[in-house]
Amino acid sequence: MNKIPKDISLFAFDLDGTLYFGESLIEGAIDLISFIQKNYNVVFFTNNSTKTRKEIHSKLIHLGFKCNVNEVFTSSYVAGKYLSEAGIDNVYVIGSEGLRSEILDNGIRIIDNSIAENLIVGLDLNFSYNKIETAMTVIMKNGKFIVCNEDKFFPVEKNKFMPACGAMVGSLYAVTNKSPDFIVGKPNTYFLSKIQDSYGIKHHEIVVVGDSYESDIMMAINNNSTAVLLNSNNDITNNNVLVIENPIKMLRYLKNR
Question: What is the value of pTM for the model shown?
Fold first, then answer.
């Protein structure tokens, strides 16, 4: 393929590492989004489970992007939707206040001790031995083990990374030998299914743009959607992935289509 098809109706953009690093815009990102928004729907997605979709929307506005909150999909928001759809209630939460807020907004009851029936895990900056103990008890009672993602790390600035949700998930696997029952975030396609539902479109009408082959691009491939990798890495040999170095060069590519 190595090109963007003509029958596209929506571009889905990853955030960290694709449009910004932490609080710093990547050069050309706003111009790229503004250009695409003239002819296509644009949504923003992130495996970040620490913030609500409203908080991520506020960040995008602050950085200079034009969008509305319904165009933002976070793993915390999607996790709340999944729990509701799957009928999973009475959950113990390892994660942020943002994740807890999205879960509560879906009418799910949060239980802050080991009598909880199920477990959901997101990035938790206050992760502790006591939380491992409580989560282990819930899992060993055959409670559902749901995670926002299994990312190993996330970028906070160029060439600087921090441990991600996978660090929490890995420690729980180590003590229970149980893998998650469901992974909400990318590379799982559940993210894209929620976007498709919201816009009434099919998988082939979506272009997924991201900086991680293992996460963003694999989600697109798993969903049979078009994939654009914004990365200077020229070692990608998958002919179904369009590799472009940065937002500036992607804008040039789109203008010359």
Answer: 0.93
